[in-house]
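Quick illustration, no need to memorize.
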Amino acid sequence: MKRVLVTGGAGFIGSYVVEALLQRGCTVMSLDCLMPQVHPCSPNWPEYQQALLHDPECLERLLLHFEDVRNPREFPKTLRSFRPDTVIHLAALVGVAQGNHEIAQYVSANVTGTANVLDCVVKYNQEIRENQEQVQRIKEGVEALEAGEARDLYLGRLQPLLDTLAAKPQAPIERVLVAGSMSAYGEGAYALDDAEDLSLAADYVRLPSDWVPGQMLNPGGSLAWDAPGMHPIPTSEDVRLQPASVYAWTKEQQERLEVL
């Protein structure tokens, strides 16, 4: 990776990703809409990322760009101007409880936002392929003519078009990385305390339907976060996703869109 666009680049995860990429010598655009709920100083950029601009080693390789990934007009322009080879998509509204009563907002930001990012990347790469094909057709047309005045005239008339095509992005975006969330797995995997082999699928059990973590006590008097007779175990990545909130559902949709 040489030129990386990080959406949600001012966020908790995004800011660390931006910094890590800079340390590896990448040129980075940190793109964020700086929601006031997360960034109280909005529309000003957070100090922890502005500070990077004062680092001589980062100054020439970091761009801070204020934008919403849902904007279908401006995001394509950003791709054309920055010309990334990689897009790391981290922009998302977070908050499980809040998402359950701001459903449209969360679906718009997380699902529609991701769809717009992927759609713009697809069209960006398609435009590059079409430009390359057009240049190739022109070159073949020139080569088909014998050297002489007619060939020079043909090439002269098409030179402005060739110059225009040469000024456009030439390399496609090679990869798009989308952040998943553990919330998409729901409560996660549990096993019975007396299970002998935790690798068996039968040992992955559902919590009791009436179980509410933190509303019962353990024998010692502490709050019980695990159901009686059960304990959490690592959740395999190949288990079925079971989102249990609006936020989790939107993160699941992000994963499915990226895979498609």
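Strands lie at 3-7, 27-32, 62-66, 86-89, 175-178, 190-192, 230-232.
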